[in-house]
Specification:
three-stranded antiparallel β-sheet, 19 helices, eight-stranded mixed β-sheet, alpha+beta
Amino acid sequence: MLMTDEAKEVENVKLLTEMMGEHSDREVALRVLRKYEGDVEKAAMAMLEGERGDDDQSRQIWGSVSQMDVVSHKQPSAPSFARQNTPVVDLTGDDDGDLQRAMKESMSTLPQPAPVFGPSERPADSNWAMVLSNQEGNQEANYQQNLERAIEASLEHNNANDSDALEPFPIEQQLRRDGCPVVLRPSIHTMCYAAAILQGLFYVPQVRKRMASWRPTVMSGMMEVNVPTSGTDFTLWALSEIFTHMDLARLCDLNVDKHLCAFNIEPWTSLMNPLGELSRKFYTRLVATLEKAFLDQLILCGYNRSNSRLFHFLYGESAGAAMLQETCIVPIDINPGGGGSDANDLIGRLSAQLSKPQDAPEKQSVIVEPSEVVAFQLSKPSPSYSNNTSTSSAAKPFVYPRSIYLDQFLQQNVEFAEAKRRQQHDLFSNVQKLILHKKSMTHFNGKDTLKDLRSTIYYYEHVADDKGDPERTSSIRTTTEKLKSILEAVELEIKATDQLIHRMREEALTLLDCPELKQVRYDLRVVFMHDGLYGRKHLYCYVRDKGQWWRIADSLIERVTEESVLGDTTGLHLGAGPYLLLYSRYRPDEDERLISLPWPPEIKDDVKECNKAFLAQLPPELVKDIKEEHTPSSQNGTFSQSVRLTDLERRSDGMDVS
């Protein structure tokens, strides 16, 4: 690139960052500008929609779930490594020439120099220096130290034989108090991630309410139905038992070993098994089973199936309504080292993936039928494969909000949202003109005119010699006043221009934040976290229940503030942190809807008996004020068998939810 082109590019990057505001990232602006071949206006609109200029930025908008994820259960494959510049030799055919050539290659060796011991004669390379010769040396050193400590901790953890053993709570600490939530704790540590998802779904109000109303299918001609022991009903009955205990049990920790046989769970065996991908596959299979069961029940009850989308929303391209797909989870590509704070957040990434592509406007993705629940899988690059030399950018956490609005992506709002985006385009075009106008007042031929003007004024005020000539003195004074007047006028115009730029930029950034596009609100319900190391003690989640946030770890349940939930930077230097988010539609009366849910009477009776047995083990002073609220149901209930899932622990024919 010629120097003139480089200088122009530098000026355009500066112009672009000024247009986007003080939080814009210069590296992102440069990449986006090059992607759009130096067109500042196109680059500005792309950055506004969350574009980061990545070469591998996918146009797979929602990332629909393949049917194979639901039907099959695949083991993760090991990465393949290609040997470059090596001819392919067919050893399976009958060609003797190939065989001879293969044998010749395998037997040939290159001459190797004899080893020489002593100081290296290789010239010094600053890249391998013990102390980096740049200003970010301290940051790089701190990052490496943190990484080394994390690796040491991981090795210590893996060497400990009982590090993942289930440690029971003291019995006095097992009593639920003050609305304390419940933690599901399987004995098998490889199943903890799946238990966390089951646990998290309970704290999604719509899921909890729907599960409380579910009952096993009654076949035609039958008056009663047995407790299911296989099939889809077996899976939902297990989840119903789990949810009922989580709602009514006096215990704050529940062992779910006897229930996990109802779910097809792929074990998490090591960090080589990506936790986010395992969770995605398990969540996808599970909610597909739940959705179908709920839909079947609604159809039997005569409800309209078009209004029954709980987990899966319907989407497609705005210009191709016939090609509709559905999905329950939206993959969000996170690149902590690849963008500024304005790009590394949920809203920005959604805008980048869902807004109208400038190179293919007809391929804008829209939501045709929204669902009650939306899950976001946060995909991060592996630290071992990232070649990042700027640790300052790598240390930026991913930002997710308390609430999001998806109105701008709904099919019925496409035209309105597009009109707003056109207004954004016009505003940013005017901002660009104002910035160029400001530049014309402050620079000329590459020189700072204001600086030169102030220097000239200083000269006339403090340096110029009137040589005792009254006429010269008057001329100097007049010239000084004129120059000051010009400077004051320019500064006032620059100030007014800056205020106008700020006002227009703020208006452009908030155009989509209008009442018309804030009707479909989704609230954050669950955040699944991973600190980057392996084991049950390195997973935890945040849940929101009855207006209060809780942190639920394997052996710890505590109240936390919303700020700590939204600002947790755990696992940041290991490429970990939040890996799955659950949002669901906001309902004003959602807390009231969760009071006295109609759980199956048989399970409620089981919970009552478990509570009595547990409370009997506690000191009298701890239980003197506790009263059981529900009474046992009649033995002549819907179910003819009293066999419960907890009696089926030896069964091996659990439902495959795929």
